[in-house]
Amino acid sequence: MTASGDERMMQTDVAIIGAGVAGLRAAGMLQKAGVSCAILDARDRIGGRIVTVDADGQPSEDGFDLGPSWFWPGTQPDIGRLVEELGLASFLQHSDGDVVFERMAREPSHRFRPINQEPQSRRLVGGSATLIRALAAQVAPDSIRLNTRVIEARLTDEGAVLTTLDADGRTDILHAMRIVAALPPRLLAAHVQFLPAQRADTIVRWQATPTWMAPHAKFFAFYDRPFWREAGLSGTAQSMVGPMVEMHDATTATGEAALMGFIGVPAEQRAARGEADLTAACLAQLARIFGAEAQAPQATLIKDWAADPLTATSADRFAGGYIAPSDRPWVAGPWAQHLFLAGSETSAVEPGYLAGAVMAAERAARVILSTGQV
Ligand SMILES: Cc1cc2nc3c(=O)[nH]c(=O)nc-3n(C[C@H](O)[C@H](O)[C@H](O)COP(=O)(O)OP(=O)(O)OC[C@H]3O[C@@H](n4cnc5c(N)ncnc54)[C@H](O)[C@@H]3O)c2cc1C
User: What range defines the domain where residue 356 resides?
Assistant: First the structure.
């Protein structure tokens, strides 16, 4: 990488790549222990896969989750503990009422009352971005650098040297004793050039680890009230007809009404069909399932994560696949003492989930603090 003339040089104990849940959690723990951190994110916002917006798609403190919306404290105690520690309020996913199942286009949908709904999904009051704001509040504000894409990491006798690129194409240099890579391993392999190079088997493993939910797209339809509840419907539906395969009541804790569905059309076909065509098909499906009122929402939104280059790579345009939990080290060779992977996908427990992001971040922070070398 050739340095540009006006390149700046900075120094920190730990450089954290990614300001999602994992990056912010690791930074909070490290800074609390007196370790200086720079948190670098290529986006113009914090949160990564967590985005909470209003019906106009603008950031909201009482909004709808374009990324993750649920956590399951019963089976994921670590995220439950963190939510409690941060003093965040949560509520149960609305599921009272009947579920609808669409099996075939040529037969009417089936309506049934589910018996066992364990484990119950919970949502954060205000949306998942509440978690991001709470984690960010534990981090020194001037340590977060947005619009800062890490493109190269070089190992030297003194530690690591990162090269970053800002939104104007300007490069900067950051010296750090350690790097915490708080992003999906597949993105790390695609974005960052390592000198010396990572071992071939390491890169193959990073590339082969699917980024959880990256191939998916969410559709939202916003209404003046959750009218489906009046008809005894929970808002939950499953479909083998499509375009959505799974639908849920996305109404906020304060009563802002919405239905949300995961679009089952593969990413390539979504791109070819375009948003207008998909929106019309999704609304027609909602009307089939929840009644004619669903056809006339106040607004709609689609978030296609496969089209977001800071979440998905070309490998994520196809079905994602299962992430096998593993406690094998993610880094080998000369980088092993300097680079720590902390994205959710690297967690040995609940990889891919919010819980995994918290656990992977806490693991990385603990290992760095235990070495006492920063
Ligand atoms: C549609 C969808 C629904 C989901 N639903 C749920 C759910 O209900 N429950 C659940 O538990 N989980 C869910 N997940 C998964 C959850 O979102 C993730 O587990 C979690 O957000 C991952 O956090 P992270 O910090 O590990 O990574 P990310 O949030 O992906 O953060 C990585 C950050 O790295 C940044 N970055 C990337 N490349 C670079 C670079 N070169 N330089 C600098 N920065 C870079 C990105 O901009 C990003 O901000 C869902 C995900 C999606 C997409």
Answer: 9-49+132-212+321-371
